[in-house]
Amino acid sequence: MTTTITPPEPKTSSPISNSLTAGKLPNQAPWMVLGASLLVSAALFGMLALTGGEFDWAGMFVVAALVYVVTITTVSRVVEGPRKAMDRFVTALVTGAFIVAMIPLVSLTITVVTFGLNRFDVEFFTYSMRNITGEGGGAVHAIVGTLLMTGTAALISIPIGLMTSIYLVEYGRGRLARGITFLVDVMTGIPSIVAGLFAYALFAIFWGPGTRTGIAGAVALAVLMIPVVVRSSEEMLRLVPVELREAAYALGVPKWLTIVKVVLPTSIAGITTGIMLSIARVIGETAPLLIAAGFTNSLNYDMTEGRMSSLPVFVYTQYANQGNPPEAYLDRAWAAALTLILIVMALNLIARLVARFFAPKYGR
């Protein structure tokens, strides 16, 4: 007699329910809620405008943002649960903060470009303001002065700042290193006008009171640049792995040569970026240059003789001392501001290209 064994029937297990993924809004839900919030807010302010008054665009966007945050949080809490609702709430707040931060930047850029293009011509970049009292003229003297003083300040501050950061990272120990770090922190927070007063007083000792020269303006800018260069370079040097230094020491390489051949090439991209950012930070200073370098309408290439103009001071004087017609002075001020912004953008672009070119992953 043959006995047939029947295999047991498989047990059906109940599906596993995960509370974190039980419900999920479609990907288009945030955009749909945002559109609905804008429509509701626009309808509300449209009805208010019909009663007598102008349409408040700023108020409409603020109300729409509040309606969106409340609506998306409530809907997400009902469908997705409290954890996902809190995530969407924080995401909405962060996105809103980013948009609010971008509004002044975009508005400033549009305003400067719109008004600056009125005098963004060949004459503006080839003529100075010598013997110009009305329309015409240019800012070549201010552009040259800005480049000369900023370049001289970079030549002064970069070696000092870089060697100071090398000392703090590689050699500095004890009270002297702590004292230097403290002084660098103090210099980082000093007002720019104090740097201008320092440079003015320093050169007044040797050349007499009332002396204003381009080299004095460069020294004032260098005082502001040095702490930025020290801090940025110090952080980049500390990021170099200790193993690279130890490998060089194991091969018998002296410490100074290790710094020159290993540490600096490894961190050169970050150091260059910090230096460019420090230059972009001081190139727009007005108060120290107004005190130390003064202002002139003529082109001056001599850093040690006579006053020297700069773009920030040129913008200030054109706006503060408007003549006839006032539109000509305002157009020159806006064009100089646009030129200064373009120079800063070019410096940042150069810094990014240098950082990309010298990055370790691309090789050297």
TrEMBL record:
GO function terms (MF aspect): phosphate transmembrane transporter activity
Domain ABC transmembrane type-1 span(s) in chain numbering: 143-351
Region of interest called Disordered, as start-end residue ranges on this chain: 1-21
Classification via Pfam families: BPD_transp_1 (PF00528)
CC terms in the record's Gene Ontology section: plasma membrane
Biological processes per GO annotation: phosphate ion transmembrane transport
Membrane spanning residue stretches: 31-51, 57-79, 91-118, 138-168, 180-207, 213-230, 262-283, 333-355
Main location: membrane
Signal peptide: none
Subcellular compartments: Cell membrane
Membrane-topology descriptor: Multi-pass membrane protein
UniProt keyword Acyltransferase present: no
Keyword Glycoprotein tagged: no
Sections of the chain in a coiled coil: none
Keyword terms, alphabetized: Cell membrane, Membrane, Phosphate transport, Transmembrane, Transmembrane helix, Transport
Family per similarity comment: Belongs to the binding-protein-dependent transport system permease family. CysTW subfamily.
Functional summary from the UniProt entry: Part of the binding-protein-dependent transport system for phosphate; probably responsible for the translocation of the substrate across the membrane.
Descriptive protein name: Phosphate transport system permease protein PstA
Gene: pstA
